[in-house]
Design a protein that fits this description.
Helix content is about 75%, strand content about 0%.
Length: about 80
């Protein structure tokens, strides 16, 4: 994917993950993009670790993988903030 698609994909994934984790009020657009991109990388790495394909483009499977990674990333950040 090109850099523009990564930004759009990251923004969309980060926004949905922040809604799911109820952190949308704390996050702005830039943080949503960062969370979405980090989530895509994390989710892709985890899926390849389990023998499945990672992020393969702008499709539903990649969105779900990135969303799971972003939710995991937000959960880790929330846990570290409490500690």
């Amino acid at each position: 994917m090109g850099i523009i698609l990564w930004i759009i994909f990251g923004a969309l994934v980060g926004w949905v993950a922040s809604l799911f984790m109820k952190t949308d009020a704390e996050q702005g657009t830039i943080l949503n993009i960062v969370v979405g991109i980090v989530g895509a990388v994390l989710g892709g790495w985890l899926m390849s670790f389990f023998g499945k394909s990672g992020i393969s483009g702008f499709n539903i499977y990649s969105f779900i993988v990135a969303l799971l990674g972003a939710i995991l990333f937000i959960a880790i950040v929330k846990a570290l903030r409490r500690a």
